[in-house]
Specification:
It is a single chain. Helix content is 33%, strand content 25%. The chain has 215 residues and is of the alpha/beta class. Strand 1 and strand 2 (14-20) form a beta hairpin. The two termini are 34 Å apart.
Amino acid sequence: MTGWQFWIDRGGTFTDVVARSPAGRLVVRKLLSENPDRYADAAVEAVRTILADHGGGGIDAIKMGTTVATNALLERKGAPTLLVVTDGFVDLLEIGNQARPDIFALHIVKPDMLYSQVIEADERITADGQIVKPLDEAAIRRKLETGRSKGLTSCAIALLHGWAYPAHESRIAAIAREVGFDHVSVSSEISGLIRYVPRTDTTVADAYLSPVLNA
């Protein structure tokens, strides 16, 4: 090993860094994750100060993990998200796959959905790629504009068979960006799964958490 190695854990409150020098010495730093008066990024500041305090040198590796997304998910502090699905599938994630830990439970408590609102796109592409209902762009634009006006800033798009035929997903994504959504997640880009429920679940999670990670 000829350079430094850094292992970084970026949490919501603190960023912890363990560094190993070329000589094998371990150096530890703990910084506030958010401290704009002193630095723009805690991880970068930790690496900078360690190198400055211990003679500098090259860097062989930086490995970073974070609990920011986990915390945002558990505390329900993700971005206000709008979900777009194919017409007729508005309850897709509410129904889910019917997997229940206690199949005979009479009182079922379901977790809240990550999205704030779901809208339907008037479109349909078959499993073999035939467009049986062209995308109604004017209608979806109106719905997206309404969602954006309600303060929703992130958009998740998951259409039936979109994993294989993403043309309608891509067009809706372009419209969503045009009307002002800060972040847009498209299922054909995020998760190329055939199954509609897990693909949509993954896309919603990406739309809900990515703005937090990118902040």
